[in-house]
Amino acid sequence: DIQLTQSPSSVSASVGDRVTITCRASQDINTWLAWYQQKPGKAPKLLIYAATSLESGVPSRFSGSGSGTDFTLTISSLQPEDFATYYCQQSNNFPLSFGGGTKVEIK
Amino acid sequence: QLQLQESGPGLVRPSETLSLTCAVSGGSTSNNDNYWGWIRQSPGKGLEWIGSMSHSGHAHNNPSLQSRVTISIDTSKNQFSLKLSSVTATDTAVYYCARRRIGIFGNEFDYWGQGALVTVSS
Questions:
Q1: pLDDT, tens digit, for every residue of A34-62?
Q2: Residue A99: its chain B contacts at CB < 8 A?
Q3: Which of A91, A93, A97 to mutate to probe the B interface, most B CBs <10 Å?
Q4: A42 to chain B: which residues are within 8 Å by CB?
Q5: Predicted pLDDT of residue A16
Q6: Is the previous residue joined to A44 through a cis bond, with omega within 30 degrees of 0?
Q7: How would DSSP label each residue in A48-83?
Q8: Can you give the pLDDT at residue B64?
Q9: What angle do CA B22, B24, B29 make, to 5 degrees?
Q10: Beta strands of B33-120 (E only): which ranges?
Q11: Which distant-in-sequence residues (6+ apart) come within 8 Å of A74 by Cβ?
């Protein structure tokens, strides 16, 4: 099974900050990686797919990069509505798996 | 706009079978480019993929739950279902139904239900 390790597990940041979250896969997953945002009591929302492609309707301040085993999600200028937990997910192999999550908190 | 809505009992007794249904509106479960599946999230924890199925019956399940999971699709009702047998307290979670989009470059979950909390307790 492919393990996804996210870091950091939490980050404190201010509005306007640049935030970078890392996801490392236990083996090569090419670019079969997606990123999701989850707010308390809500379902996850797809942000990025195929490692770098922005889902329709998602603000351009979100971007994804990486391939193979190392991936990043970057929020270029944090907005109040971005405080949430972020998850990566791989679809290279079954079973599909998610990272442990990164909580972005207000500083 | 595609919408998914989970329904089912919120309380299940230990050793019994958890049953949930996901009603799909604004789109069809017969679409060839999609799988329909389930993900769960234990209280305060991360996300765990349970399994998914296409309208043609092609299924993938998480081996950690494989022997206890049954996912089925009823295209006539435009809905799909989850059955998880022999539940224990560790199966207490919010259960999400979701559409898995099949593309050239990824298989991601693009539409989700709001989630249904299922508690396993006597």
A1: 999 999 999 999 999 999 999 999 999 99
A2: 46
A3: A91
A4: 114-115
A5: 96
A6: no
A7: EETTTEEPTT--TTEEEEEETTEEEEEESS--GGG-
A8: 93
A9: 105
A10: 34-41, 47-53, 59-61, 69-74, 79-84, 93-102, 107-112, 116-120
A11: A18, A19, A20, A21, A62, A63, A64, A65
> Token pair for residue A50?
């195929």
pLDDT tens sequence across B65-112: 978 999 999 999 999 999 999 999 999 999 999 999 988 777 899 999
Helix (DSSP H) and strand (DSSP E) numbers for chain A? 0, 11
**Residue B30 backbone dihedrals phi, psi, to 5 degrees:** -85, 0
Q: Among residues B80, B26, B11, which one has the least CA distance to residue B50?
A: B80
Token reading at A29: 């997953």
Phi, psi (degrees; rounded to nearest 5) at A65: -145, 165
Question: Cβ–Cβ contacts within 10 Å for residue A34, how many?
Answer: 29
- B108 touching A, CB under 8 A? yes
State the smallest CA–CA distance between residue B42 and chain A in angstroms: 12
User: A35 CB near a chain B CB, below 8 Å?
Assistant: no
Q: Compute CA distances B99 → B4, B96, B102, whole Å.
A: 9, 10, 9
**Do B109 and A36 lie within an 8 Å CB cutoff?**
yes
Partners of residue A49 in chain B, C-beta under 8 Å: 101, 103, 105-106, 108, 110
The minimum CA-CA distance between B105 and chain A, rounded to whole Å, is 5
Contact yes or no for B49/B118 (Cβ under 8 A): no
Q: Which residues pair with A25 in a beta bridge?
A: A4
